[in-house]
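@channel anyone free to eyeball this complex?
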Amino acid sequence: MSESGSKAARVIEIEVLRYRPGTDAEPVWQSFRVPFLDDTSVLEGLQAIKDDLDGSLSFRWSCRMAICGSCGMMIDGVPRLACHTFLREFFPGKVRVAPLDHMPIERDLVVSAEDFVHKLEGITPYLVPREARTVEQGEYLQTPRQLEQFRQFAGCINCMLCYAACPQYGLDPEFIGPGLMALIHRYNADSRDGARAERMELINAEQGVWSCTAVGYCSVVCPKHVDPANAVNQNKVNGALDWVKRRAGLKGGGT
Amino acid sequence: MAGWWRRNPYFVWYMVREVTAVAVAVYTLVLLAGVVCLASGEAAWNGWLSAMRSPVSIAIHAALLVGMVSHAWSWFDIMPKTMPLLFVGGRPVAASAITRAGLAAAVVAAAALFALAWALRP
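replying in thread with the prediction:
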């Protein structure tokens, strides 16, 4: 990269899919020309548009460092965090920014997370202690191997990129979806948890693991390497075993 | 969602992976037809054998072989996603190691079967 290339501002075309309720009958593309440097993210590009070109542009963001999960959007057709994607990657071409696939648009790049949040409330997304302990008895201890069983699945930031990546969720929004299946597994795989039986019913439902056809794109787009496809597909085995146990009259839902 | 799989190269490869299962099913039917012919007597068996030697059959087999190899590769590629975490010596086994082990097992099994068929040829 030459001195002028890295230091001087270049100008890139950013096309944004706009939808302003009451003004636009349907989403329309709008083009902006934005100066950028090597370290300018797509999020900063959108902020430049909002600050200098069109104050009506709406998008969600908070931390600008890939930890809050707010700025997920379709960037050139791929679900990515806007703060985690640099404009230099697309120059000298243009970059197209659209709201996340498979979710209703509220305004511009802001989608409704209602379906996700509603499902999240229903999966018992917290530890239910397997055994009651008093403070005097001390912590719930785990071995490093027990921690490893769920550690990667605990990295989810609820950015919903995997939902925009999942064609099965796009075809049938009743599917619980990759991110929440990973979160279910995060708690089920935790040796301290005691609510596995009730979560197994969600896993084994048609809208649970059986809606997944192992496309695997959810794990590709995940910015935190949670690997939801692994969480979903290893639970197909767990779900089948649980079904056999229940049919055989054994107590299902256990470990 | 119509035509969704054409929107992204990743989805195209997913569909290719799924379609190669058809190659596996078709080859199973070809072998099954051979078994039925074998049970039906010598004339039927020889008819099946000569049908297998026809240029059309060889072309179909070449296409099925490509499908089978592609299926084996993509199957072992996705295998780590379908398994619980594996630990060897207290450390998690990398997905690539699981894929390579599966592919190696498939190659060894195919080579052993081929050697057996070669040794027993008339």
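from a first look: The mean pLDDT of chain B is 93.
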